[in-house]
Amino acid sequence: MSKKAIAIAVVGDIHDRWDATDGEILKALGIDLVLFVGDFGNESIPVVSAIADLKLPKAAITGNHDCWYTASPWGQRQCPYDRNVEDRVQQQLDLLGETHVGYNKLDFPEFNLTVVGSRPFSWGGPDWKNAAFYRDRFGVEDFQQSTERIVAAVKQAKYDTVLFLGHCGPTGLGDKAEDPCGKDWNPLGGDFGDPDFAEAIAQTRRLGKTIPLVAFGHMHHNLRHTQTQLRKSLAVSPEGTVYLNAARVPRIVTTQSQEQRNFSLVTLEKGQVTQASLIWANLNGEIVSQENLYQLSPQVVQPA
């Protein structure tokens, strides 16, 4: 039986900025479940190993940087290690084990929910990229087959409450540069979300599942074309699903007085997201600043 409210931390694109202290901060914050949206580093085995060692309930998905030297001919040419000797993509998957939910699911009986992953190693956008990589690694050759893999995981979910975890978010969250998955490089604008992810979410709703949260990253909050605003972090669908982009990069900063690390915090209550915020915590796990992103009115919360 899960407790009344579940405290979830969504860890945005890490890009090598993670260590054991982060785990201690999460424990100090009273986090019940940790969701990692990928981009741990450029195929960084040490970072993934540290995340695998985290002693908290967790689920993770890999991002484009986690196949940086493997997925494309360009990356292979830049590769700093011998790919004939090492397979660092597979090493990461082996380290994460069942925690990696890309094209898979992980049931959490203690919370009465299932976390389902979208397409792993996503680069985002409307074009099917890295075709050989997906064909050889996953037997997937196009967006339709990718959607089928995600929905197959949904159908295996033990619980009717499904949290979706992706690296890039789904299409449908806006086509402006500042939207959660908007294209912020020239030419500006356009929805750069994953179409297979969006279709999988739609099919999951038709299966009667409840989707309170879709968490992702990839598109950083700092926009490339302007410093006058940040990317929108959150959107809410007519069905009440909260779509959260957690990619505040860099996630570790040092001020004049202290080091601070960011996490996106989500409260799940009776199968609904009731609150979401982005916080910066010090090394003692104390919140030093907080940006409130979402608050559900108490009268909207459905009875158990």
TrEMBL record:
Gene3D superfamilies: 3.60.21.10. Residues 8-221 form the Calcineurin-like phosphoesterase domain. InterPro entries: Calcineurin-like_PHP, DevT-like, Metallo-depent_PP-like. Pfam families: Metallophos. PANTHER family: CALCINEURIN-LIKE METALLO-PHOSPHOESTERASE SUPERFAMILY PROTEIN. This is TIGR04168 family protein. The lineage of its organism: Bacteria, Bacillati, Cyanobacteriota, Cyanophyceae, Geitlerinematales.
